[in-house]
Amino acid sequence: MNQNLLETQYDVTEKSKLKKFYQNNKILIFSSIIFIIITLSSVTFYLNFKEKKIINLSNSYIDAKVYLENNEIDKATNILKEIIFSNNETYSTLAFFIILNENLIQDQKELLDIFDHILKENKFEKEIKDLLIFKKALFESDSIDEAKLLSSLNPLINKDSIWKPHALLLLGDYFSSKNEYLKAKDFYIQTLSLKNLQREFYEYARSRLTLILDE
Fold first, then answer.
1. Is residue 147 classed exposed, middle or buried when 0-12, 13-18 and 19+ CB atoms within 10 A define those classes?
2. Choice among 32-36, 115-119, 167-171, 174-178 with the minimum mean pLDDT
3. Global pTM?
4. Which of 20, 22, 72, 160 has the CA that lies 20 to 30 A from 178?
5. List of residues 6+ apart from 154 with CB closer than 8 A
């Protein structure tokens, strides 16, 4: 009997505590519930929006390639520009590479502005970013001075990257074309000193070095 009474009193006490806690904190409880609902809804909306955006970019990319195949250059170029400025790491880069490979934009300043925009507005994996840096340097190597070219390629030649030999050979060829053979020789030798250098790079650097020594 006493045991049942104690249990009943305990239940009443616990319920009273819960009721009191609820009364004192009901605003906080409701606010927390509303916050969770809003957060979950926002995340769901964002994920759906992002997925829809990627699908639209994919469709636009396909449309641009179809226009190119049909020789509708202006339409293709305009769509590719829109994709570039959507700032999607994957499709912005793919669209820009098409523009470069197909020579769809002749204005050098516009192309350099797009290079800068893509590098600034997107977060790439290391190798993709290095590729863009190299392509930019290669594109402007005929029109910039030594200091600017070296500055552009420093991020590649001062670290391990699959694009390091490309950068060293570009600098070697740059100085060789200006008849600055001592500088060119230095970059070809640096290329040959790289570990695990692919044979095609080795053969090219060695042949260029041989030509310099014969000068």
1. exposed
2. 32-36
3. 0.68
4. 160
5. none
